[in-house]
Amino acid sequence: MTSPTVRGTPVDARPLRADAERNRRRIVDAAREVFARHGLEAGLNEIARHAGVGVGTVYRRFPDKDSLVAAALDEEVARMLAVADAAQRSDDAWSGLVLLLEEGLVLLSSNVGLRDLLLSQRTDPLDDGPEHLFLPYVESLVDRARVEGTVRPDVTVQDVGMLWCMVSELARHSVDLAPDAWRRYLALFTAGLRAGAVPDVPPPLDEEVAQEVLTRWIGLGGTRAPGAS
């Protein structure tokens, strides 16, 4: 699998003066905290205030918001990819799928910005942003689980993506009140994916219909579940 990257406009790679490097680090640390708490809708003015610098200083170090997002969230994306790698190496696909969902939600529930980034709505179908890094893992685990007979034969990647999106939305709104509330609902939902564990249910949504439902639910410019095209 490829290494995680967060796209952004390249910045000058020349070494910075000590004071400039300190400012850059303050900005990145502030952005990491602000994005984690408020998501990627947070503006550069808010980040500058949190860092204790002027917004002009932010623009001198980061020519656009994408480059700041890249610097602030690359480590979090790497942690998420490490979870996906561990899930892929599981001896059985069901355990790997549950690991990816559970540990992924631990990271997403504590960082709104990471959730926004990985479940982001992209308008470019050829976009190679970090949210697309995880689709091959989900596809592989679902395919393996079908072969092993541990998931319902009609389970799709879109089902898993929808589940992840729903539970992560719950986690986002309950993290301050009941940080582990999402675990109950993840357990209930994943039980419905298991082969032979539940009665017959209606067939899954068509992929295009599933994407439209997500778009209407979350709104334009909102988030998209992994696996939804």
TrEMBL record:
PROSITE patterns, per the entry: HTH_TETR_2
Keyword set, alphabetical order: DNA-binding, Transcription, Transcription regulation
Name of the protein this chain belongs to: TetR family transcriptional regulator
tRNA-binding recorded as keyword: no
A GO MF term: DNA-binding transcription factor activity
Residue intervals of the HTH tetR-type domain: 21-80
Superkingdom of origin organism: Bacteria
Organism in which the protein naturally occurs: Sediminihabitans luteus
DNA-binding region, residue range(s): 43-62
Pfam families: TetR_C_43, TetR_N
InterPro entries, alphabetized: Homeodomain-like_sf, HTH-type_TetR-like_transc_reg, HTH_TetR, Tet_transcr_reg_TetR-rel_C_sf, TetR_SbtR-like_C
Record has Magnesium as a keyword: no
